[in-house]
Amino acid sequence: MFGDENSSFSILSLLKMLLFGGSFVYVGSLSQLIYLVRVFPDKMETFKALNCISATCVPLSKYVFMWSVRTRLRTIFVMSKQGLSAIESDTTGYSKMIRTLKTARSASWFVIINQSVTHVIYLLIPFLFTIFGNIRYLPTTPGETYGLTPKYETPYYEITFMLTCFATIFSAVNQTGYIVLFINLLAHELGHFYVITDVLNGIFEKNDADRDPVFIDRKLKFCAKHYQYLLKFHNEIKNLYKIIFGAHFLMMTIVLVTTLQTMNSWDIRNTVLTAVTGIMPLFIYCFGGELLITAGMDMSTAIYQCGWEKMGVKQAKVVSVILCLSQRPLCLTAANVFVMNRETFGGIAQVVYKIYAVFN
Predict the structure, then answer these.
(1) Cis link prior to 41 (omega < 30° from 0)?
(2) Which residues have a Cβ under 8 Å from the Cβ of 234 and sit 6 or more positions away?
């Protein structure tokens, strides 16, 4: 019975992949490649085609990533559960961890609402134009229906419109799910940083008369073990995501460049959708990575200020080991090249603007 259920689930997943992923490739990457060949070297139409190709490759790559790394994601989820269960539930550190996860939940809902509204509007406006207007209006990318079929013929228009709806749903679901997953994994890592920092600050706040060696031993042991867990958890996330981060940095930079180039000649719907597609993940990657670096620096400061100079030799050695390890901040990178932080985001913005100035 269990084997039959697994077989049914696999078949259902395959059908979903063919329905959504297949239509996404058809109306997105494949059709725009054909259109790109047709219009090259027309500058403006080439930028439009490149905009669509890069914008559609982002959620498609996320789908491939999610499909191919399910086992490793399951390992990270197990580690997240183990790390949360290792924190004493009656401590202020645990409260900070819960607050961090609640903040991540709020951010996740913002992403869900943002993506849902954007994609619904993208589909709703062409639908209303088609029903109440005098023209058949597609949620368009450049070309006569994506460079493959005449724009107003039947049944090609109806088929393309239906496939576009499937592809847009596929895009929204994959964009949303991937970003929400990243936010929550990042929140777990940040929460553990905050817990360790809180424990170290608790040691510092103890008066000299209240410094119980047993209490300090227990807290330092917790910090050392938990930081070991944190290093392992971070390396798992970093190794899992580094390739997909690198691909997204490249594709989203192309999205931003081509969006600027086509802003004056393309309607506002396409500009808004492609801009959100490119900017939101890039913003979350970079500023989420900045939060991670800042949390690591705060923890390093807390280690140095925990009062190690008043501890015994063995306790001071434990502190020095953690302090040495923390001097190299944990950070997320794109393909082990670009550190995801505010400086990288600003650098990409400058590059995009320079490219825009060159072509205009």
Answers:
(1) yes
(2) 189, 330
H or E segment and range at residue 339: strand 338-339
Check residue 310 and report its DSSP letter.
G
Predicted confidence (pLDDT) per residue in 239-266, tens digit:
888 888 888 888 888 888 887 777 766 6
Sign of the C-alpha dihedral computed for residues 4, 8, 13 and 15 taken in this order? positive
Tokens linked to 135 = 């023209």
- Please state, in angstroms and as integers, the Cα–Cα distance from residue 213 to each residue in 91, 226, 299, following that order: 19, 20, 22
From its phi and psi, is residue 322 left (phi > 0), alpha (psi between -120 and 50) or beta? alpha
Query: DSSP string of 60-73?
Result: HHHHHHHHH-HHHH
Chain-centre distance of CA 130, in angstroms?
35
Query: Contact, 329 vs 297, CB < 8 A?
Result: yes
Radius of gyration of the chain (CA): 25
Helix axes 92-132, 268-304, angle to 10 degrees: 180
| Nearest residue to 360 via CA among 255, 264, 271, 261 | 261
Spatial contact of 315 and 220, defined as CB atoms under 8 Å apart: yes
36 by Cβ neighbours in 10 Å (0-12 / 13-18 / 19+) ranks as buried
pTM (two decimals): 0.83
Sorting pLDDT into bands at 50, 70 and 90, what band is 291?
very high
**Tokens matching residue 198:** 């809180």
